[in-house]
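User: Can you recover a sequence for this backbone? Please restate the input before giving your answer.

Assistant: Of course. Working from this structure:
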């Protein structure tokens, strides 16, 4: 695989098994310049080896339907069924790179005769690539069943019956374990301590010249700490900056677990907190990309897509 393809190997498999609406949420996530050790080593096996610039379209078909990532220009991509507001062109490009330079953890079987046991009779998804100027023949990757016990899938191309095992490390998840600290409820409590509205509080930290650290991680104790600092006459904008910084530092750990290395986006009510966005950019040294759609709708969109897929599966 080409050395300059710095993406999470196999992440296109994660995209392939998602519906188009859910894909929109995933494609706002950043690329990761450090591939996982299982697939980035010299022992990884190349499945496809195409230049991203030569790919014209990438069509994914799964139980939720079909969507196509189209080339709109140089390093510019789009999906007809996904609004431009949700588009992240660099992520589309990463998906193309991942498909064009896909590697496997290992070869499971060469010249396999029983493809049914790997799920290729009814593929979980197919990934078809077409190429501009006929630089290569069209190729389709078939995603079979999931390998039991691992986040990996059986994969083959329509060019041979060699079966590969590909790790899906493209979608990561980490959850805050500090009760409500860092949630909207936490910021509501802090705004109440300042006797401000939530929008007023979210902008307060932007004027701070210094940061007063907030040490408590529990909402109740943090609120008590803030009230004490206010009573001592400490600058309110610097206290607010400390609150935002405390949450940003908590996000730092989770973001690194999830593999954020390029840029990130925020969803939910906290995405409207300007002070938090600035603090996160400062702590993570990453650009926070604003969504053009209301970030508070993202959870509802994901839930609706999940319900749609579950409903289709029962038919």
């Amino acid at each position: 695989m080409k050395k300059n393809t710095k993406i999470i190997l196999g992440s296109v498999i994660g995209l392939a098994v998602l519906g188009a609406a859910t894909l929109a949420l995933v494609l706002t996530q950043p690329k990761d310049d450090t591939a996982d050790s299982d697939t980035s080593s010299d022992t990884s096996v190349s499945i496809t080896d195409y230049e991203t610039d030569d790919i014209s379209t990438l069509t994914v078909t799964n139980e939720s339907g079909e969507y196509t990532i189209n080339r709109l220009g140089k390093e510019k991509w789009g999906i007809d069924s996904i609004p431009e507001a949700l588009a992240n062109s660099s992520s589309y490009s990463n998906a193309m790179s991942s498909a064009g330079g896909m590697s496997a953890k290992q070869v499971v079987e060469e010249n396999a005769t029983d493809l049914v046991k790997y799920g290729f009779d009814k593929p979980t998804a197919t990934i078809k690539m077409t190429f501009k100027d006929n630089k290569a023949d069209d190729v389709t990757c078939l995603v079979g069943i999931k390998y039991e016990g691992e986040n990996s899938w059986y994969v083959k191309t329509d060019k041979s019956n060699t079966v590969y095992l590909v790790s899906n490390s493209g979608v990561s998840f980490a959850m805050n374990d500090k009760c409500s600290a860092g949630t909207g409820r936490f910021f509501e409590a802090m705004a109440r301590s300042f006797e401000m509205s939530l929008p007023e509080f979210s902008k307060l930290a932007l004027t701070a010249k210094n940061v007063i650290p907030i040490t408590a991680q529990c909402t109740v104790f943090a609120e008590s700490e803030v009230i004490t600092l206010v009573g001592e006459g400490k600058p309110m904008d610097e206290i607010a900056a400390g609150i935002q910084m405390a949450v940003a530092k908590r996000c730092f750990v989770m973001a690194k677990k999830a593999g954020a290395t390029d840029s990130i986006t925020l969803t939910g009510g906290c995405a409207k907190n300007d002070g938090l966005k600035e603090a996160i950019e400062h702590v993570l040294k990453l650009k926070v990309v604003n969504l053009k759609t209301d970030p508070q709708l993202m959870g509802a969109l994901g839930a609706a897509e999940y319900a749609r897929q579950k409903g289709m599966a029962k038919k």
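That completes the design. The first strand starts at residue 45 and ends at 46.
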